[in-house]
Amino acid sequence: MEIKRNVYLNRLIVRKQNGFIKVITGIRRCGKSYLLNNLFCNHLLEEGIDDSHIVKFAFDSADDLRLIGEDLFEIDKENRKVDPVKFMDYINSRVTDNKMYYILLDEVQKLGSFESVLNGYLRRSNMDIYVTGSNSKFLSSDIITEFEGRGDEIHILPLSFSEFFSVYDGSKDEAFDDYMVYGGLPSIALMRTEEQKIKYLTAQMQNVYLRDIVKRYNLHSDEDIGELLDILASGISTLTNPRKLSDTFNSVKNSGICASTVTKYIKHLEDAFLISRVKRYDVKGKRYIDTPYKVYFEDTGLRNARLNFRQIEPTHLMENIIYNELRYRGYNVDVGVVEIREKNSEGKETKKQLEIDFIANQGSRRYYIQSAYEIPNDSKWKQETRSFDKANDSFKKIIIVERSMKPRRNDKGYVTMGVKEFLLAANSLEL
Fold first, then answer.
1. What pLDDT does residue 137 have?
2. Pairing relation of β-strands 332-343 and 287-297?
3. In degrees rounded to 5, what are phi and psi of residue 184?
């Protein structure tokens, strides 16, 4: 069963022959290779590109490495990179005329001196380069400098709910419940039993993602960073900062990890695309606030697996899913802050900060969005919309609730819609 990923496919299509190296990034197992080597490759073939002018090479494939005289076992054992000269000789043997060649390279960070190799290919007018990488160290500022500003990133998330539902055998409500608990890794969408999903997610989190971080950054073990990940997983959608996390770590785990180490570990987790750190934006002051910030997981299933599926909190998980959906649609997302002044019970004027869950920006478009699992009464409605009232601007303001409901607008112009309606309609923010 093929899962269509047309949003990402179209992002590749519009970048064809743009003179940049198209760099597909994303968490391991999110579908980067399938997008490049199946969906995009099939598009090229359907467009009439001759198969001989599509060159695919995976640097983690034993069969491909044998083509250039390398041995995957030896490379893994010796922890060395693939010989760039052997690879370049292979490419030269495949590029035999002046027509356009599409070069599709998987896990290119395993190639020695890959920056220089790819820069060299950029200077050839008949090569269009597409590569995948599994961590953002591969896209560090130093590497972008090496690409001379000619790297074009396409970041891939796990399946959106609409992609997940397209292959789901069941109702929208059942699908959303499964998606909230087990997330959107493509392999999960094709599994049929809870036992399969739990075992897969637990193994991936422990044996792939964390071990990869330990190896990449030469950490002594995964104990400290794993326990920090537990604390972050327990606190998704809540404000935090390194000092607070350090204090929690010390009190709960009885460990002496300092705030600077927490900051370093969070950066490692971000670089591995396990989490996203979201800054707050002062709506009236028009400035960013560095701390405290919020943390969301790239995939809710991996978050739940880290906590052994013991802490399934629909309110926080729904907020995480909305955040990921906004990123999937190409928005830059911040947490909004609206500062107000009001008098306390003693008549003294005090400052207070109201929160807007998300400010979604894309070009000149901006949306204010509140994630409210349920709004049972007027008091809850006033609580959720007070920040909208005080923002005092004309940007569209949306409240997303858990129960199914078509978009409806009140006399202030605020739109309320169900989360499934929001997730399944590509134009839901415009409704």
1. 66
2. unpaired
3. -125, 25
What is the 3-state secondary structure of 303-334?
Answer: HHHHCCCCCCCHHHHHHHHHHHHHHHCCCEEE
DSSP 373: S
pLDDT value, residue 342: 83
The pLDDT assigned to 142 comes to 62
Cα-Cα-Cα-Cα torsion 196, 202, 206, 210, nearest 10 degrees, comes to: 110
Nearest-angstrom CA–CA distance, 295 and 252: 19
H or E stretch including 17?
none
Amino acid, single-letter form, for residue 382: K
Q: For the chain, which residues score pLDDT lower than 50?
A: none
What was the pLDDT predicted at 133? 80
The DSSP secondary structure of 40-102, one letter per residue, reads IHHHHHHTT--GGGEEEEETT-HHHHHHTT--HHHHHHHT-PBPHHHHHHHHHHH--SSS-EE
Tokens 């640097």: give the residue.
59
Phi, psi of 220 (to 5 degrees): -65, -40
Nearest one of 355, 410, 422 to 378, comparing CA atoms: 410
Residues in the chain: 431
pLDDT value for 267:
93
Order of strands, sheet of 21-26, starting from the edge strand that comes earlier in the sequence? 54-58, 101-106, 127-133, 21-26, 151-156
In one letter, which amino acid is 226? Answer: G
pLDDT in tens, 29-80: 999 999 999 999 999 999 999 999 999 999 999 999 999 999 888 887 777 8
What tens digit of pLDDT does each residue of 303-325 get?
999 999 999 999 999 999 999 99
Long-range Cβ pairs for the range 212-221 (8 Å, 24+): 212/28, 212/134, 212/135, 212/272, 213/268, 213/269, 213/272, 216/135, 216/137, 216/268, 216/272, 217/268
Q: Which two tokens stand for residue 426?
A: 């590509």
pLDDT confidence of residue 361: 97
For residue 209, what are its two tokens? Answer: 């993602």
Contact 180, 321 (CB under 8 A): yes
